[in-house]
Design a protein that fits this description.
The chain is of the alpha+beta class and 579 residues long. The chain folds into 4 domains: 114 residues, Pleckstrin-homology domain (PH domain)/Phosphotyrosine-binding domain (PTB) (PH-domain like, Roll), CATH 2.30.29; 105 residues; 193 residues, Porin, CATH 2.40.160; 90 residues, no CATH class. Helix content is 42%, strand content 23%. It is built from 11 helices and 22 strands. The strands form 3 sheets. Strands 9, 10, 11, 12, 13, 14, 15, 16, 17, 18, 19 and 20 form a 12-stranded antiparallel β-sheet that branches. Belongs to the OSBP family. One of its GO terms (molecular function) is sterol binding.
Length: 579
């Protein structure tokens, strides 16, 4: 049974069954929830020395499967399939996890806002903390050196007295009262001890000197880095303000009718987000017969799509930039070769949100896995933009490996220009003999006027054309979108505000129901909590959430109904009122 700790109300602990593998199945584990972290141990005694695993709830997802099973995941590498003893126990754990997650997210947001107010000040505090820690360590080493030096001097003094003061070190005939000669063995031991003590003192002195030099070198390097960063930040802000002033002056210099109405923010449908991926894959992804070569070309095509796609993501606004963390994985199956691939998107950062020219950067690691051929995968690294790097920006590198870890292909290039690949002829990846790099993908110049359609390709733009027989929830039926395309910007903006307020009210209603469900669960009314939780949870019409064994995550799987309704021309009366 789970039990709350009286002295530590933010802590929750108890026994749960955790899925281990297909041989052992569910095994009993001791779980501890504390400070936004969920950790588990084999026994309670292990808490003092061995932690078997920990999940940070700030970025975790908690899914309830049935009356006793639930899943806690923080990415493909951390998935806990858990089982409680009964439904009441499961609800207590889920409620505690949700509350801990909400608190962890709130704390994280507060730290991000505090850290984002003054990036230079934050870096300075970090550098000061590092220097303070280094100086404290140096002080400890100096004290230890003084103690060793003092003791060594005393020891050497005693040794000299033993040798010269008439005290026998070994066994001799006159060892009773007068000066007795030392034995050869005693002299040898004393010599060894003196040499060891001298070497110890010398090593300690050298270490202290080296630590002092290192501390001074690090201090100078850090001060130089902070000074350069502060200067660069100041120059960038001045330049952004000047550009903003020039744009404002240009707008004041021309009549409003010559400038035209200001466009509304971009409105993406699901098709708009997905089609840039599918377009290149459909055109180029099936030209190879299969195996490593197919995966290599597919890697290049897919990585290029990060140039223009906007994935489903969790976003964090940092004041000057917006960071989008993509959620989930994407599946694709090539019918010609039968290969089934999955991959993840990398992090997208949008800079100059407030002032200046907007620009986008991609960073992080993408992993593409071929589930048809065991062990075949590609790892692509998007190198983050850096003001101090000598390399050309927007760079990516990667490789394709087999089950044994052997590299067959290497990739390099820039995700906004071109990507090239080469076959590994012999040797390891870093010291391998490669074939000539050949072009795998190149950026296609946009069509004239692409700025007016948000940089979409011609094919993607054509998907926004009205079509008869679409579902009532299709984004092409949004009245504000049609009004905007017809040039009625004022009416479109008014309708857009009404639509957004309608969405916010629905969200607030669900949040209120979820809070009531948590209160009911805390009060021990599991039936009422389950009913409120079900009412607060959105249920898709054509998809259901299932566990994906390939990626070890939860995903939405199509359950049917859309294409059948489109063929019949009858969508029924189950549609939510979203417009």
């Amino acid at each position: 049974m789970a039990e709350g700790i009286v002295n530590a109300p933010e802590e929750f602990r108890g026994w749960l069954l955790k899925w281990t593998n297909y041989i052992k199945g569910y095994q009993k584990r001791w779980f501890v929830l504390s400070n936004g972290l969920l950790s588990y141990y084999r026994t309670q005694e292990e808490m003092t020395h061995t932690c078997r695993g920990t999940i940070n709830l700030a970025g975790a997802f908690i899914d309830t499967l049935d009356s006793s099973n639930f899943v806690v995941t923080n990415g493909p590498s951390q998935v806990y399939h858990l089982r409680a003893l009964n439904e009441v126990e499961r609800q207590r754990w889920v409620t505690a996890l949700e509350l801990a997650k909400a608190k962890a997210v709130k704390t994280l947001d507060f730290e991000d806002e505090s850290g984002g107010e003054d990036e230079r000040g934050g870096s300075g505090c970090l550098g000061d903390t590092f220097l303070v820690g280094l100086k404290a360590k140096l002080k400890e080493l100096t004290s230890a050196h003084d103690v060793v030096n003092k003791n060594s001097l005393q020891l050497l003094k005693i040794i000299s007295e033993l040798e010269e003061g008439g005290v026998g070190v070994g066994t001799g005939e006159g060892g009773g009262g007068g000066k007795a000669p030392s034995s050869p063995r005693g002299k040898e031991k004393l010599g060894h001890f003196k040499a060891a003590a001298t070497a110890l003192v010398k090593a300690a002195q050298e270490f202290v000197v080296q630590a002092e030099c290192t501390e001074r070198r690090w201090s100078r390097a850090l001060q130089h880095e902070l000074s350069a960063r502060a200067q660069l930040q100041e120059n960038m802000e001045k330049l952004a303000k000047e550009m903003h002033g020039l744009e404002a002056e240009a707008r004041r210099s021309f009549p409003k009718e010559e400038i035209g109405p200001l466009p509304l923010p971009r409105q993406d449908s699901v098709e708009d987000r997905v089609i840039p991926d599918g377009e290149d894959v459909a055109d180029n992804g099936t030209t190879e017969d299969g195996g490593d070569e197919e995966e290599t070309f597919f890697d290049a095509v897919e990585m290029s799509n990060d140039e223009l796609t906007k994935p489903k993501s969790v976003s964090k606004f940092r004041g000057k930039y917006l960071v989008c963390y993509p959620i989930g994985n994407t599946h694709i199956v090539f019918h010609k070769s039968g290969n089934h691939y999955t991959w993840n998107k990398v992090v997208t950062t949008i800079h100059n949100i407030i002032i200046g020219k907007l620009w986008i950067d991609q960073s992080g690691d993408a992993k593409i896995t071929n589930h048809t051929i065991p062990g075949e995968e590609a790892n692509i690294k998007f190198h983050a933009y850096s003001y101090f790097s000598r390399e050309r920006q927007r760079r990516l590198t990667g490789s394709v490996t087999d089950e044994s870890g052997k590299t067959h292909y290497v990739l390099k290039g820039h995700w906004d220009e071109a990507i090239r690949l080469a076959k590994v002829l012999d040797g390891e990846e870093k010291t391998a003999t490669l074939s000539e790099f050949e072009l795998a993908w190149t950026n296609v110049p946009p069509k004239p006027g692409h700025e007016a359609v948000y940089g979409f390709s011609e094919f993607t733009s054509s998907l926004n054309e009205p079509e008869e027989g679409v579902a009532p929830t299709d984004s092409r039926l949004r009245p504000d979108q049609r009004l905007m395309e017809q040039g009625n910007f004022d009416e479109a903006n008014k309708f857009k505000q009404k639509l957004e307020e309608k969405q916010r009210s629905k969200r607030r209603k669900r949040e209120a129901l979820a809070a009531k469900a948590a209160e009911a669960a805390a009060a021990g009314d599991s039936e009422e909590a389950a009913m409120l939780e079900k009412e607060a949870t959105h249920v898709p019409l054509w998809f259901q959430k299932e566990y994906d064994p390939l990626t070890n995550t939860m995903m939405h799987v199509y359950k049917g109904g859309y294409w059948e309704g489109k063929v019949r021309g009858d969508w029924g009366a189950e549609f939510p009122d979203i417009f």
